[in-house]
Amino acid sequence: MNQCDSCVYYAYDEEYGDYFCESDMDEDDYARLMGASVRQGCPYYRDGDEYKVVRHQM
Predict the structure, then answer these.
(1) 4: closest CA among 54, 38, 32?
(2) How far apart are CA 54 and CA 18, in angstroms?
(3) Are 19 and 13 in contact (CB under 8 A)?
(4) DSSP string computed for 1-17
(5) Residue 5 Cα to chain centre, angstroms
(6) How far apart are alpha carbons 11 and 3 in whole angstroms?
(7) pLDDT by residue (tens digit) across 46-57?
(8) CB 3.0-4.6 Å disulfide test: which of 34, 38, 44, 49 passes with 23?
């Protein structure tokens, strides 16, 4: 599973029929992200699991 699959910024675009990242980043940020090694991960990643906090409180 790709890290993007569970990210809150990963959205489906019906017009293009594909997924894309909705994170607000400029060209420099995007170039840095594409050049980063896989182990570093995405600095814009946010878990899309809305119930994570609730499970933690139980």
Answers:
(1) 38
(2) 31
(3) yes
(4) --GGGGBTTEEEETTTT
(5) 7
(6) 13
(7) 887 767 666 666
(8) 44
Structure tokens at 1: 């599973």
Tell me the CA end-to-end span of the chain in Å, nearest whole number. 27
Amino acid found at 48: G
Backbone dihedral angles phi then psi of residue 51, each to the nearest 5 degrees: -95, 5
CA distance 19 to 37: 21
Domain range annotation of the chain: 3-57
Q: With bands split at pLDDT 50, 70 and 90, how would you rate the model's confidence at 31?
A: confident
Question: Is residue 17 predicted with pLDDT exceeding 80?
Answer: yes
Q: How many residues does the chain have?
A: 58
